[in-house]
Amino acid sequence: MVFLLNEKIEFPDPRLGDESGLLAVGGDLSTERLLLAYCHGIFPWYAFREGMIHWYCPMKRFVIFPDEIHVSHSMRNLLNKGKYRVSINTAFDEVIENCGKLRIEEEGAWLGDDMTKAYKELHRQKFATSVEVWEEKKLVGGLYGVTLNGCFFGESMFSLVPSASKIALIFLADIMRQTGGKMIDCQLETPHLKSMGGRFIDYDEYMKIIRR
Q: Which of 30, 81, 97, 169 is most solvent-facing, going by the fewest CB within 10 Å?
């Protein structure tokens, strides 16, 4: 079942969505609605299709636990070379804009002006985080997502050089281990993320972690 949202900031029970994870359409991208969504494992996807926002909440969640991230031998060698520098929250706008540019030609590309504006506002209010990878003074990769209750809800990543997004993810997991972070929500399974320790958990376990 897919629900139609109105101006009231609320969502139906995610367990009532359809098999693809699509739960609802409509609503807006206000900070209040986005925060409520992420607190329940709901996220906007393909920002506007047929003129409305689509909200997803799959019952199987692909996640990485910070202490389970896998760093390959080749990645360790690359990190040890010190070729790249990594930072956090120093270039959020540039990261999200690069993510949008690299996906603009993809079918169903979702990172349009409205979505970009919404996540920049989340960052301004300290609910969204970016990780940046630099080669000297050039931004060559990074990722961004929403941060709530010790969890990181990944939204997008980009690489202008090989493995830059992997470096960003390894750095994020390391920071989360140091600060007591609980979980990185990857939203979708990819071979890239699976090779780094991503695995599926069910929605009930996922929500227990968020609420813990």
A: 81
DSSP 86-148: EEESS-HHHHHHHHHHHHTTSTT----HHHHHHHHHHHHTT-EEEEEEEETTEEEEEEEEEEE
pLDDT one-digit tens code per residue, 78-90: 999 989 999 999 9
What CATH number belongs to 3-58?
3.30.70.3550
Q: Could you give the angle at the alpha carbon of 176 between the alpha carbons of 174 and 180, nearest 5°?
A: 130
CATH of domain 62-211: 3.40.630.70
Q: Are strands 183-185 and 22-26 parallel, antiparallel or unpaired?
A: unpaired
The secondary structure of residue 160, as a DSSP letter, is S
Residues of the chain with CATH 3.40.630.70: 62-211
Sign of CA dihedral 11, 2, 104, 195: positive
